[in-house]
Design a protein that fits this description.
The protein has a single domain, classed as Glycosidases (TIM Barrel), CATH 3.20.20.80. The protein is built from eleven helices and ten strands.
């Protein structure tokens, strides 16, 4: 017979998951090039969240800048207007800050970690954003994704890199809350460092971030594991690479479930709200990539996690409207986008039901 204690635990966990699922956001990632027509197409998918990346057009372009970039601000202002008209929630992801060597992901060798002038500019950027948009409804401007794929080095001038990261996050939270207590702040788990010192994934070093409470704070990670499969045909990764060939799909999903197990344990321990801020597989992964995406969403939905697919009309390599390319190394062009009943259909199915 089931013990009373075990029964209470199971009931409590069931109630927690039901509450989490009631607050799930489902959406897509976009860049700075979309029009109102594009946003209407996003709305037609049934999504309620749009995560906006400013990697191409940084909100803060240089260490010398005293104000936000006017062109990037105009984009964000337009997107806020679009979202307000269509009933969508925006999540702002600056993605790039001065002191980063690249515009899409951080490295432990970035000057950002060792030169305080870049850290001060980071805090100044968030203060400017928070002040400018303090009066926008949180039903439109949902939140701020504080720092994308942070990769602190193991040591910074004899101090643990994780300690430096926490200090930067604490300063940013203080800067934002000085002007805005309504916005949800997204804290990404930092990138774990591999044996050679390079960033690997966001599931293996959750303690580096730690717990910052649940009041106005959500926790986030990006899921692209295994990278050689999801990134095939991109950035020099070879193709084809198969994940399911000769395997039971249920066993592969079990592996994916285990891979995100650390995040589930974090959720269960703290009652944290989880956002999978990015996930996907390049079109070169073909039908297996579509199955991978479907299985991941099934996992996210089962755990009550919010999610944002990477990405919508940002790159034809990741676009759910682009046709699958099984092992093809052909270069896709933006004007080749089509609407197959594949990945776009998968997203719509989990959001509004099968069509």
């Amino acid at each position: 017979m089931m013990s009373i204690v075990r029964f209470v635990i199971l009931v409590g966990m069931s109630l927690f998951l039901l509450q989490a699922k009631a607050e799930v956001l489902r959406g897509v990632n976009v860049d700075d090039r979309l029009t109102f027509s594009d946003f209407k197409d996003i709305k037609s998918l049934g999504v309620n969240l749009v995560r906006v990346s400013f990697a191409r057009k940084p909100l803060m372009s240089s260490i010398e800048s005293e104000d936000l970039d006017s062109a990037a601000v105009k984009v964000l202002d337009n997107y806020i207007e679009y979202a307000s008209k269509l009933g969508l929630k925006l999540l702002v992801d600056p993605h790039y800050f001065p002191g980063m060597a690249g515009k899409y992901s951080m490295k432990p060798t970035d000057l950002f970690w060792t030169d305080v002038k870049y850290q001060r500019q980071f805090l100044h950027t968030w203060e400017l954003i928070a002040r400018r948009y303090a009066n926008v409804s949180p039903e439109v401007l949902f939140g701020y994704d504080l720092i994308n794929e942070a990769a602190p080095p193991r040591l910074v001038s004899g101090e643990r890199g994780c300690t430096v990261l926490r200090s930067i996050i604490g300063g940013a939270l203080k800067a934002i809350r000085r002007y805005d207590n309504k916005r949800t702040i997204i804290l990404q788990f930092p990138m774990a460092l591999g044996v050679m010192g390079g960033p690997t994934n966001q599931m293996d070093d959750l303690d580096c971030l730690g717990f910052w409470g649940n009041s106005g704070v959500w926790y986030s990670f990006h899921m692209y594991d295994p990278g050689r499969f999801t990134h095939q045909g991109v950035l020099g990764f070879r193709t084809p690479v198969y994940l399911y060939r000769g395997k039971d799909p249920a066993a592969v999903q079990g592996m994916l479930r285990a891979r995100v197990g650390s995040v589930l344990r974090f959720q269960e321990r703290y009652g944290a709200k989880i956002l999978v801020g990015e996930f996907g597989a390049s079109v070169f992964s073909g039908a297996e990539g579509s199955l991978y995406i479907r299985q991941l969403i099934e996992i996210f939905e089962g755990y009550g996690w919010s999610w944002a697919f990477h990405s919508f009309r940002e790159s034809p390599v990741w676009d759910p409207e682009a046709p699958e390319r099984d092992g093809s190394e052909d270069t896709l062009k933006l004007d080749e986008r089509r609407m197959p009943k594949t990945r776009i259909g998968i997203l719509r199915e989990f959001i509004t039901g099968p069509k």
